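Handout, section B. The chain below has 223 residues.
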Amino acid sequence: MNSTLLLFEDRVSEIEFYYSIMVEIENGSGKVQTIDNSRFQRILKSNLLLMLYNLVEACVASGLMEIYESVKNSQIGYNELIDEVRMIWSNYEIGQLHLSGAGRKTYEEKVQTIINQVLLNQPIILHRENRRFGGNLDARAIRELCDKHCIRYVASDDGGCLRTVKDKRNNLAHGDESFGDCARDMTLTDLEHIKDEVQKFIKGILDGMKVYYDNKCYLLRSV
């Protein structure tokens, strides 16, 4: 999990630097001058929300992929995995057939392959495609994701800050709000609170992922 924790630290540093520049500009100590500084500041605020969502999705995806790589590199079979991870693997394998619209013969062959893989306890591979977030990660979705893997964590989201970041990110991505309007009613104090809560929540989730990774809690009889 070291690479994910380094990613978290790098993105947090980037966000903190960006926020400090916003504070300087609002206080009049910054050197940036535009034809409309007020509008420019509103755009900066909206962009901070995008940076926060980038932190959320990047860290959660990276943490899961490190866990998946650990499973793969350990050459672990189906019978050695906890029920939650078995379900994730089997749902993905069967779901691929449904998405491809496979015929009966192909479906039967795939099911037989899955049965043999289970009976022979062949190594299981968890795929990145299993975790396509599509811009929909908030505190509830992340908790559900962790619960599905049986990852334990201590993380709270005061005031639904992650939901706000997710909704604002999607409004910007889909063109429902402009960068000038998206965060216009948020003060820097509001944004500071959101920033701090998002970082604290993600740190709590990553701490839980690290324990899961280090102790190989995906094993049926983990240490």
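Note. The helical segments are 2-26, 37-73, 83-100, 104-119, 139-149, 161-173, 179-182, 188-214. Compare this with the example in section A.
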